[in-house]
Specification:
hydrolase activity, single chain, alpha/beta, 4 helices, metal-binding, 6-stranded mixed beta sheet, Metallo-B-lactamas, hydrolase, Metallo-beta-lactamase, Chain A
Length: about 210
Protein backbone atom coordinates (compact mmCIF):
# COMPACT_ATOMS: atom_id res chain seq x y z
CA UNK A 1 0.00 0.00 0.00
CA UNK A 2 1.01 3.62 -0.57
CA UNK A 3 0.51 6.58 1.72
CA UNK A 4 0.46 10.25 0.76
CA UNK A 5 0.86 13.30 2.97
CA UNK A 6 -1.07 16.38 1.81
CA UNK A 7 -0.69 19.56 3.92
CA UNK A 8 -3.86 21.66 3.83
CA UNK A 9 -4.92 25.10 5.00
CA UNK A 10 -3.22 27.98 6.80
CA UNK A 11 -1.86 25.70 9.53
CA UNK A 12 -0.60 23.17 6.97
CA UNK A 13 -2.41 20.35 8.69
CA UNK A 14 -1.45 17.00 7.22
CA UNK A 15 -4.23 15.05 5.58
CA UNK A 16 -3.21 11.54 4.62
CA UNK A 17 -4.36 9.00 2.08
CA UNK A 18 -3.63 5.30 2.47
CA UNK A 19 -4.14 3.71 -0.93
CA UNK A 20 -4.34 0.08 -2.01
CA UNK A 21 -3.64 -1.38 -5.44
CA UNK A 22 -7.34 -1.07 -6.37
CA UNK A 23 -7.16 2.72 -5.94
CA UNK A 24 -9.33 2.47 -2.86
CA UNK A 25 -8.19 4.72 -0.03
CA UNK A 26 -8.77 5.77 3.55
CA UNK A 27 -8.76 9.52 4.23
CA UNK A 28 -7.25 10.84 7.45
CA UNK A 29 -7.93 14.32 8.87
CA UNK A 30 -9.14 16.31 5.83
CA UNK A 31 -8.58 19.67 7.47
CA UNK A 32 -9.21 22.35 4.86
CA UNK A 33 -9.30 23.23 1.16
CA UNK A 34 -12.05 20.71 0.55
CA UNK A 35 -12.68 21.55 -3.11
CA UNK A 36 -9.01 21.23 -4.06
CA UNK A 37 -8.60 18.06 -1.98
CA UNK A 38 -11.59 16.42 -3.64
CA UNK A 39 -10.36 17.49 -7.08
CA UNK A 40 -6.97 15.93 -6.40
CA UNK A 41 -8.49 12.60 -5.42
CA UNK A 42 -10.70 12.67 -8.50
CA UNK A 43 -7.69 13.39 -10.70
CA UNK A 44 -6.00 10.29 -9.29
CA UNK A 45 -9.11 8.15 -9.80
CA UNK A 46 -9.19 7.32 -6.11
CA UNK A 47 -12.16 5.77 -4.36
CA UNK A 48 -12.31 6.84 -0.70
CA UNK A 49 -13.96 4.32 1.64
CA UNK A 50 -13.98 6.26 4.93
CA UNK A 51 -12.70 9.28 6.82
CA UNK A 52 -10.76 8.54 10.01
CA UNK A 53 -10.26 11.48 12.36
CA UNK A 54 -7.47 11.50 14.91
CA UNK A 55 -9.30 14.26 16.79
CA UNK A 56 -11.78 17.07 16.19
CA UNK A 57 -9.85 20.33 16.37
CA UNK A 58 -10.96 22.67 13.58
CA UNK A 59 -7.81 22.33 11.49
CA UNK A 60 -8.38 18.58 11.15
CA UNK A 61 -12.07 18.61 10.16
CA UNK A 62 -12.60 21.58 7.82
CA UNK A 63 -12.99 19.50 4.63
CA UNK A 64 -14.91 16.59 6.13
CA UNK A 65 -18.25 17.55 4.58
CA UNK A 66 -16.87 17.99 1.08
CA UNK A 67 -15.21 14.58 1.14
CA UNK A 68 -18.04 12.80 2.92
CA UNK A 69 -20.72 14.20 0.60
CA UNK A 70 -18.78 13.59 -2.61
CA UNK A 71 -18.39 9.86 -2.00
CA UNK A 72 -21.13 9.23 0.60
CA UNK A 73 -18.63 7.70 3.00
CA UNK A 74 -18.69 7.40 6.81
CA UNK A 75 -16.68 9.34 9.36
CA UNK A 76 -15.03 7.76 12.41
CA UNK A 77 -14.13 9.63 15.61
CA UNK A 78 -13.74 8.92 19.31
CA UNK A 79 -16.91 9.28 21.37
CA UNK A 80 -15.41 12.04 23.54
CA UNK A 81 -15.20 14.39 20.56
CA UNK A 82 -18.20 13.53 18.42
CA UNK A 83 -20.01 16.62 19.74
CA UNK A 84 -17.03 18.78 18.78
CA UNK A 85 -17.76 18.29 15.10
CA UNK A 86 -20.92 20.40 15.37
CA UNK A 87 -19.52 23.00 17.77
CA UNK A 88 -17.16 25.82 16.71
CA UNK A 89 -16.63 26.47 20.41
CA UNK A 90 -15.51 22.94 21.22
CA UNK A 91 -13.45 22.47 18.05
CA UNK A 92 -11.88 25.90 18.75
CA UNK A 93 -12.48 27.42 15.32
CA UNK A 94 -14.26 30.42 16.78
CA UNK A 95 -11.32 31.17 19.04
CA UNK A 96 -8.70 31.06 16.29
CA UNK A 97 -10.54 33.40 13.90
CA UNK A 98 -11.21 30.56 11.48
CA UNK A 99 -14.93 31.21 11.20
CA UNK A 100 -17.50 28.68 12.35
CA UNK A 101 -16.07 25.39 11.18
CA UNK A 102 -18.44 22.54 11.84
CA UNK A 103 -19.68 19.31 10.33
CA UNK A 104 -22.30 16.71 11.09
CA UNK A 105 -21.61 14.10 13.72
CA UNK A 106 -19.74 10.95 12.76
CA UNK A 107 -21.46 7.84 11.47
CA UNK A 108 -19.16 5.65 13.56
CA UNK A 109 -18.16 6.47 17.13
CA UNK A 110 -15.05 4.84 18.58
CA UNK A 111 -15.64 3.60 22.11
CA UNK A 112 -12.81 1.13 22.64
CA UNK A 113 -9.41 0.04 21.40
CA UNK A 114 -9.90 -2.67 18.83
CA UNK A 115 -9.10 -3.69 15.27
CA UNK A 116 -11.01 -1.60 12.76
CA UNK A 117 -11.57 -3.26 9.38
CA UNK A 118 -12.72 -1.24 6.36
CA UNK A 119 -12.56 -3.16 3.10
CA UNK A 120 -8.97 -4.35 2.60
CA UNK A 121 -7.71 -2.02 5.36
CA UNK A 122 -7.24 -3.05 9.00
CA UNK A 123 -6.10 -0.69 11.73
CA UNK A 124 -5.30 -1.11 15.41
CA UNK A 125 -7.05 1.71 17.27
CA UNK A 126 -4.89 3.28 19.97
CA UNK A 127 -6.48 5.69 22.43
CA UNK A 128 -3.87 8.46 22.81
CA UNK A 129 -5.41 11.37 24.77
CA UNK A 130 -3.47 14.34 26.04
CA UNK A 131 -3.49 16.80 23.15
CA UNK A 132 -7.25 16.42 23.29
CA UNK A 133 -9.43 14.08 25.36
CA UNK A 134 -10.49 11.91 22.43
CA UNK A 135 -7.28 11.70 20.41
CA UNK A 136 -6.89 8.40 18.58
CA UNK A 137 -3.91 6.98 16.67
CA UNK A 138 -4.40 4.46 13.87
CA UNK A 139 -1.70 1.80 13.52
CA UNK A 140 -1.52 0.04 10.16
CA UNK A 141 0.75 -2.88 10.91
CA UNK A 142 1.08 -4.22 7.32
CA UNK A 143 2.59 -0.89 6.22
CA UNK A 144 4.47 -0.22 9.45
CA UNK A 145 2.89 3.20 9.94
CA UNK A 146 0.89 4.98 12.61
CA UNK A 147 -1.30 7.99 11.94
CA UNK A 148 -0.66 9.89 15.16
CA UNK A 149 -2.50 13.19 14.70
CA UNK A 150 -1.17 15.87 17.04
CA UNK A 151 0.11 13.45 19.67
CA UNK A 152 3.71 13.04 18.51
CA UNK A 153 5.74 15.10 16.04
CA UNK A 154 9.26 14.95 14.67
CA UNK A 155 11.24 16.37 17.57
CA UNK A 156 8.19 17.56 19.47
CA UNK A 157 4.88 16.59 21.05
CA UNK A 158 1.35 17.95 20.87
CA UNK A 159 0.34 21.12 22.66
CA UNK A 160 -1.69 20.66 25.82
CA UNK A 161 -2.76 24.21 26.61
CA UNK A 162 -6.15 23.97 24.88
CA UNK A 163 -9.26 22.88 26.84
CA UNK A 164 -9.18 19.14 27.42
CA UNK A 165 -5.41 18.94 27.04
CA UNK A 166 -3.19 17.41 29.70
CA UNK A 167 0.60 17.21 29.55
CA UNK A 168 1.03 14.19 31.85
CA UNK A 169 -1.69 12.31 29.99
CA UNK A 170 -0.05 13.08 26.65
CA UNK A 171 3.33 11.79 27.80
CA UNK A 172 1.71 8.63 29.14
CA UNK A 173 -0.07 8.09 25.81
CA UNK A 174 3.15 8.47 23.87
CA UNK A 175 5.09 6.20 26.22
CA UNK A 176 2.45 3.47 26.62
CA UNK A 177 0.86 3.39 23.16
CA UNK A 178 3.32 4.75 20.60
CA UNK A 179 6.81 4.04 21.89
CA UNK A 180 5.81 0.41 22.37
CA UNK A 181 5.31 0.01 18.61
CA UNK A 182 8.19 -1.48 16.57
CA UNK A 183 11.04 1.02 16.39
CA UNK A 184 10.97 1.08 12.59
CA UNK A 185 7.33 2.24 12.59
CA UNK A 186 6.83 5.45 10.62
CA UNK A 187 5.00 8.12 12.59
CA UNK A 188 2.73 10.27 10.40
CA UNK A 189 1.93 13.40 12.43
CA UNK A 190 -0.72 16.06 12.06
CA UNK A 191 1.85 18.72 11.19
CA UNK A 192 5.38 18.62 9.82
CA UNK A 193 7.44 15.76 8.42
CA UNK A 194 7.11 12.07 9.08
CA UNK A 195 9.44 10.47 11.57
CA UNK A 196 9.98 7.07 13.17
CA UNK A 197 9.51 5.64 16.63
CA UNK A 198 13.26 4.99 16.84
CA UNK A 199 14.13 8.59 15.95
CA UNK A 200 11.80 10.00 18.58
CA UNK A 201 13.02 7.61 21.25
CA UNK A 202 16.59 8.70 20.55
CA UNK A 203 16.27 12.39 19.69
CA UNK A 204 13.00 13.91 20.90
CA UNK A 205 13.93 16.35 23.71
CA UNK A 206 10.42 16.19 25.20
CA UNK A 207 10.76 12.46 25.78
CA UNK A 208 14.27 12.39 27.25
CA UNK A 209 14.25 10.67 30.62
CA UNK A 210 10.57 9.76 30.47
Amino acid sequence: MQWLQIPLGPLQTNAYLLINDKKECIVFDPGSEGEAFVSYMESQNLKPLAILLTHAHFDHIGAVEEVRNKWSIPVYIHELENDWLESPSLNRSEFFQQGSIKTKKAEHVITEEKTLVIGDFAFTLLFTPGHSPGSVSYYHEPSGIVFAGDTLFAGSIGRTDLPGGNHATLLASIHDKLLTLPEETAVLPGHGPATTIASEMDQNPFLNGF
